[in-house]
Amino acid sequence: MSIRENILAAVLKNQPPASPLPDIDSFKGDAQDIISTYCDVFTSIGGQVFVVKNFTEVAALIKKNFDSTKRIVTTLSELSDVFELLSTSVDPHTFNDVELAIIKAELAVAENGAVWLPEQRMGQRIIPYICQHLAVIVPAETIVPTLHEAYRQIGEGQYGFGAFIGGPSKTADIEQALVLGAHGPITMTVFVLK
Amino acid sequence: MEKQTKDHAALAEAFIQDEEHVNWHDGALWWIRQKRDIASKQIPEWEALREAASQIKSNVLSNLHDYLVQFEANAIKNGIKVHWAADAEEHNAIVYSILKEKDIRQMVKSKSMLTEECHLNEYLIERGVDVINSDLGEYIQQLDNEPPSHIVLPCIHKRKEEIGELFHEHLGTEKGVSDPTLLTRVARGHLRNVFVTRRAALTGVNFAVAETGEYVVCTNEGNADMGAHLSEVQIASMGLEKIVPLKKHLGVFLRLLARSATGQPITIYSSHFKKPREGQEMHLILVDYGRSRQLGRPEFRDSLKCIRCGACMNTCPVYRKSGGLSYHNTISGPIGAILAPNLDMKKHADLPFASTLCGSCSNVCPVKINIHDQLYQWRQVIVREGYAANTKVLSMKAMAWTLSSPTSYSTMGRAGRWVLNNIPFAVNNKFNPWYKQREMPDGPKESFGEWYAKNNG
């Protein structure tokens, strides 16, 4: 027998009698004040939130809050006349000098502040990790209460890679002192588009 | 790495020499336990979530064979190359062969307790492959040539001054610098250079979804992603028990994991890997290494439900005051003490005894493993199999005799009180382990039994 067959045979021999799966469809969150809940939670995990009406406001806030002399990339055609539209085909290493990346989430979760980004939304998988600062547009109507609603909405999903991202990269490995910007972005800003 | 000869008590004795340090360690972990409490209380259905998670894992264990076959088929369909390894040696050989085929001599690795268990780094370094741990805590431990002392907080036993000294020695920071932000920025710079120059990256796996063939990796630092998305070869190592049946089950586990671990609502990054990037190779190694054996032990199989949050360590009075390295096993604390004897009962015979059986571990466990019951049951097995220390066997026998009849109990009680009151030096000496770090009390004049007989007889 091969290694695989040996392992599977041992598992089959040793696994206990069938135990049923619980029903988890009753888990759901509260949709009341969902936008303000999202904003509060995201702020509490070290993020920054702006509620905006349109992309003109987004562009203005970015120019005010970030260093425009450095490289700013985006996947969004709405911002492509102001910032560099990122290429989905170049070597991902070429993004190592990106100061700010601006992308758009598919949905966001009020209970934990995280945004859901399938790779098509990232442009390239490395983008939300390699940039020094990350900005994400979240249409207000895509905010869901908890991860249960999020997974219901995502379904199987047409992606090769996808991620929940909930705040700037962080570590507390040195004496439990919180430091933002471990390896990924030092800050994360969400623009809730209402 | 098989150099350990001291048991938990002896290693802990060294750890507690520095009282101020032990108090800091104790307090730091208790603070994390408190953050876990605050986070869990914000979820009204917290207990229902724990119960659901536990039941999902029961289902996984009872149907693991089919789920593994299903996961494998879906992963292959997604373009992932799946490998199987029965033990550490096979796992390490697979990783090495993947790298060798591409002539890769440098790899970056994010946190994976499994590869620590397998001693992958040593194996690869012996064969001329350089490995760098990218999780900051693990990177620090690697600089110091020590294993992690905690599965979530690898260098929690170190003070910032010690870390500053390590950075001064290895990374050339100024002597005396110990500011956490400054040190983290230095590591960020060094590791960024590592990420952009490595052709291969290895990650652990938190959850693997049978339904879709994707796997989820959770980090706060983003180090798993930095390595994976810049590599041409991506390798994931997972224990067989990491399977979840359906994708929607991730909602239950991701709500529990970070809240239980650090009190965060979710880890910063929860990355779902399904297919390799264009032009990239993605490998996944399914590792048994004792899991199928543990599955066959009815009283201990639930230990395989563990999602590695570390909550049992943070709450454990023995862990907090003895430090993770005293457990001489990759996974320390209460959960480590019930997993380790399965791998090597003789070597880890001391670990189930490193507990007060207070039950706090079971109370905080997000998947409701009856950890303290299993600690107690391992003690029975270890004594029965003849692996308990002689002093423990003798004292257990003396205790059994003392408690076996009212006469022997009251005789020993009288003898004990007489010794404490008349010749205290007979117990207040270094030959009595209970005297260490303690003063023996004065003996009471009479026992409760004697008092009761006098007053109510």
Report the CATH architecture of the domain at 64-292 in chain B.
3-Layer(aba) Sandwich
User: How many strand units of chain A?
Assistant: 12
Order of the strands making up the biggest sheet of chain A: 1-12-7-4-2-3
Helical/strand content category of chain A = alpha/beta
Poorly predicted segments of chain B: none
CATH class wording of the domain at 64-292 in chain B = Alpha Beta
- Look at the structure and give the mean pLDDT of chain B: 94
| Strand arrangement across the biggest beta sheet of chain B | 1-10-7-4-2-3
- The assigned structural class of chain B equals alpha/beta
How confident is the prediction overall: mean pLDDT of chain A?
97
**Number of contiguous helices of chain A:** 6
Regarding CATH, which class of chain A?
A: Alpha Beta
End-to-end separation of chain B in angstroms reads 63 Å
Number of strands of chain B: 10
Question: What descriptors fit this protein?
Answer:
heterodimer; A: 194 residues; alpha/beta; Rossmann fold; six-stranded parallel sheet; four-stranded mixed sheet; 6 helices; 12 strands; B: 457 residues; 21 helices; 10% strand
